[in-house]
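Quick illustration, no need to memorize.
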Amino acid sequence: MLVIELPDDQAAALKAKAAAQGLTLEAWLQKLASVEPLAGQVRPGKGRYSPSELI
């Protein structure tokens, strides 16, 4: 289990977002965590050299 400390106003705002979707805060956070791809996720980019250039 992970505990994240938030100010009361931020926690209330997140709870309101969850309720707007008919979800509990826990269910909303689980849904948010399972979204692919994640915001800010590092995506593999094209390498600088091709494999044939490295050999």
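The chain has three helices and no strands.
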